[in-house]
User: What shape does this take?
Amino acid sequence: MQLHTEDGQLAQQIILITGAAQGIGASVAKACANAGATVILLDKQVPQLESVYDEIVEQTGITPAIYPLDLKGATVDDYKQLAKTISDNFGRLDALVHCAATLGQLAPVINQDAKTWAETLHINLTAAYLLTQACLPLLKQQNSQLIFTTDIHKHTAYWGAYGISKAAIEAFAAQLQDELEAEGKVSVSTIDPGEVRTSLFARAYPARNPEGLKSPDEIVDLYLSKLMTEAEHAS
Assistant: This one.
């Protein structure tokens, strides 16, 4: 599928995308590359990352970067090393797009498994915080973007730690926006892509027919419009 991008609109941009091995993250990465960006693909699934890498090279001729990282087990030092690697290799970071997420357990609160609850919050919320914190010095060097992916199921029964993590991500984004507004360097936003044909959605709704859902490629303009607007302001 040819994504709706215009060649060169994100040229010279360095964009880090989490959850880039599949689903929305992979589609956003490919769309950004099609628009001229150099993308850094972050995920724990190396074979899938390599597949996205190969597709980007074949379609655009631009060489992306792969950064394998398991958000569940990554430490503060791991995130600091990631930021240092980006700085050493690219000298800048123009956008960080958070697409990585885990569904965890869908169940009543009384039946939630405590370990799964904690892991879900860590991957969806704490990891996003730690990565953002590590990358902020790079992002603040020029006009840049911080984009978080959220979900309508923030207050829905049975959505457990996933729903709580998305509510917290929106609060975290609002807090960052308030802190960074005066400086005017980092633009912070959230995107709710709606019901999308992804593996996470299939796990949440195993009985739903996916035929009527939009594919990840069909919702990437939600992300591109924000990225391109900021790139135009920066140029």
